[in-house]
Write the structure tokens for this entry.
Amino acid sequence: MLVKVSFDNVPSSKAFKSFVKGQLARVKEVLGDKGRVEVVVSANAHEKESRMKMLFKGKQFHVKASADNYHAAVSKALDKLLRRVKDKKDKRSLHRGRDLVFA
């Protein structure tokens, strides 16, 4: 899985990048090694924000989450992303009457 982490108005650090990549291991459990995830961490005057875009088998998933700190924002966005992927997976399996395999 290709992971791209970028920062907007935030100083970057290797420790935070490794935290994000560690969190994205949860996505690998669901989807395997295929796909691409782009993470943008940004800050404004009031809150920290994380935006994620995932491309997988022609499907795009976009999520955005805000929190008081960067770690919480990334965790919230990742939870939203996983929930959307699982909902889509369940919806397709119910619609077609069989299980959808993402791997």
The chain has one domain: 2-96.
